[in-house]
Amino acid sequence: MTCSLPPVIFFTIFFIAHHSLSTVADLHQTRSRFKPPQFSPLFFSPPPQNVTTTSPTRYFEVNKPPVPDLPTSQPPCSYRILHHDFGYTYAKPPVLANYTLPSHCSSREFSKIVLEFQSTSKGRQFDRIFGLWLNGVELLRSCTAEPKANGIVWSVEKDVTKYHSILVKNETQILSVYLGNLIDKIYTGVYHVDVIFHFYPFQRTNLRDSSSGYSSAQADMILPISRSLPLNDGLWFEILNQNDCKYKEVEIPRNAYRAVLEVYVSFHENDEFWYGNLPNDFLTANNLSVAGNGPFREVVVSIDGKVVGAVWPFPVVFTGGINPLLWRPISAIGSFDLPSYDIEITPFLGSLLDGKTHKVEFSVTNALNVWYIDANLHLWLDQEKEIVEGKVLEISKSSLAISSVSEFKGLNGNFTTKAKRSITSIGLVKSSHGDIITNANQEFSYENKMVLGKDGSMQIIDQLIQADDRIHAKRASREIYCEKSSKSFPFYLYSDSLEQRNHTSLEIANVSMGFNEERSERDNGLMKTFKSKLENKQEGQGVMVVKDHLVTSGYGSTQQVYKYIGSDQCYFRNISSSNYTILYDKLETVCKKKTLKLRHGSASKQTPTLTGLIYD
Ligand SMILES: *[C@@H]1O[C@H](CO)[C@@H](O)[C@H](O)[C@H]1NC(C)=O
Ligand SMILES: *[C@@H]1O[C@H](CO)[C@@H](O)[C@H](O)[C@H]1NC(C)=O
Ligand SMILES: *[C@@H]1O[C@H](CO)[C@@H](O)[C@H](O)[C@H]1NC(C)=O
Ligand SMILES: *[C@@H]1O[C@H](CO)[C@@H](O)[C@H](O)[C@H]1NC(C)=O
Ligand SMILES: *[C@@H]1O[C@H](CO)[C@@H](O)[C@H](O)[C@H]1NC(C)=O
Ligand SMILES: *[C@@H]1O[C@H](CO)[C@@H](O)[C@H](O)[C@H]1NC(C)=O
Ligand SMILES: *[C@@H]1O[C@H](CO)[C@@H](O)[C@H](O)[C@H]1NC(C)=O
Ligand SMILES: *[C@@H]1O[C@H](CO)[C@@H](O)[C@H](O)[C@H]1NC(C)=O
Ligand SMILES: *[C@@H]1O[C@H](CO)[C@@H](O)[C@H](O)[C@H]1NC(C)=O
């Protein structure tokens, strides 16, 4: 199973240049966009600046560092838990290691815990999806980079502090990694992997400490909503079609007073490029038997048959996607650290605290084979009461509204798809924090405009997903906790095929995507406010020269601007690459703002504010 199996319209060519064609050329049949695609990782390098270089290329995803580089920072206590060479691992059991909190750390209190995944590879290989779980709790969903003859190296560093309660347990737990790789005479790339945990000692100066309160940053308990070992596969559930529904039965401790479901999702094979899938009426009219169901997808989460929330996912492009040259060495947004999505389910606790098991279910609207989904249930537990009670006050589910308009003649057409959904739930929970009414609301909107021209050889996708989450918790009509998140995911792709002479064509792809999120969290009990704003935009232009169905050359350029300002840190990076070479890389980590101090009022009347968050 790979991250990248091309879809309908991203027909794939066999990438081979200066290699023997005999064994592989016959795998590749056609370059029609509407035939089931063949696929392969790139077998050639773009115009090399310097061919003689033997050092491996370092790939990376642009992201703020999990630990800001502060002069006061103390070095972490680090622990390598796993080394494994992922050769032929496809459909084999996940690789396991015993995880125990390292005994050599001077402190048992940590301000940050960082997971580092390192890998090297050499040869030819597809991009492979992988997952990493601790006792079934997913800590990382990621995609490998495609190696080259000279070798590549990359690492992913992820702040996993929110999984604190499971990471510091005083017992042996099982770390599992599933990375389904295939090795044969052609695909030679073995992934040599190290998994390391870094524990940063607790410091008094840490802004976001783990002090208890209604909304402490880390949950007291995390329950896995994933498949259980032993398995010959990943621990995620596989959603194969739109009627498929996978679930797990869980028992929730009776003293839980807050619950957040964190959902991990990735899409593959026929739905890897779901946002470019064409409507079925068009496919039927043209007698095409390829991935369809249109371009709209949503993950729906239900508990005991009732919808509790949804995820409208960011369209992650894996490292072999669209034109692999675009992602070397700057990988696509989210490809090395796929985003997870939180759904507040506190309003439903009233029906879940009975000590019985409850079904947490996943489905995907319009799904085609295959979606990998699982979740972690983060629970905050009452330290004083053994039994917390509650009542679900309101569930309002505006059913999903989708509209789609197709205008086409033959293989040319215009297609517009729009969708909206809102989900609101209100529930009462009576814990030692008081009688708290939580109101959770999700608002989604979606628009996708597609143009197909030149008898199907040109396609434009212009898509925008917006997702807003609002959580308000009140005690006796006084707000005690409030959380807001507004996300927007613009995505644009222009792809064209230009016929040249001598059975040659130029395959052009221009892509632009953004991951933008504004967040704020306010805990009036702890007098704390956290704010952040992320704007992360990537643009790429690539060309592949295809002759007799084989890529003979190609090039690609990528520009990215990453801008994060938050109560915790600021991070700005403006970077570009072309043909494997970094053209410029500008980095700023100092917050350009008047003040980032939180005003701590002694009088409880005063609302903490974050002042002067200005970045220019
Ligand atoms: C290739 O390497 C040589 C020698 O190190 C250097 O002079 C030249 O500028 C390099 N070429 C490119 C395109 O980077
Ligand atoms: C984990 O520890 C147990 C008990 O010591 C041992 O039997 C098992 O083989 C270990 N598992 C791994 C994956 O190292
Ligand atoms: C961890 O557990 C062991 C045995 O269960 C116990 O002896 C030890 O004191 C515990 N350590 C901590 C830090 O709780
Ligand atoms: C549709 O495609 C199938 C398979 O390629 C072919 O056998 C059939 O004749 C086609 N039908 C029409 C109406 O073109
Ligand atoms: C698609 O839209 C364009 C611009 O509005 C129009 O010129 C073209 O005729 C449309 N194509 C089809 C097949 O409807
Ligand atoms: C066309 O392709 C063939 C085979 O690759 C090559 O021998 C020939 O020189 C090419 N002709 C032109 C005009 O590029
Ligand atoms: C694609 O990108 C290239 C290079 O930046 C640009 O020249 C071209 O106009 C772009 N085409 C479209 C349709 O965006
Ligand atoms: C990024 O750098 C490029 C090249 O110097 C410049 O043209 C562009 O304006 C910069 N973008 C931002 C947002 O600073
Ligand atoms: C990348 O390669 C293409 C094709 O050789 C070339 O046109 C382009 O200028 C190269 N980019 C850079 C920055 O050298």
TrEMBL record:
It comes from the Eukaryota. Residues 1-22 form the signal peptide. Keywords: Signal. InterPro entries: PNGase_A (IPR021102), PNGaseA_N (IPR056948). Residues 71-395 form the Peptide N-acetyl-beta-D-glucosaminyl asparaginase amidase A N-terminal domain. This is Peptide-N4-(N-acetyl-beta-glucosaminyl)asparagine amidase A. It comes from Cardamine amara subsp. amara.
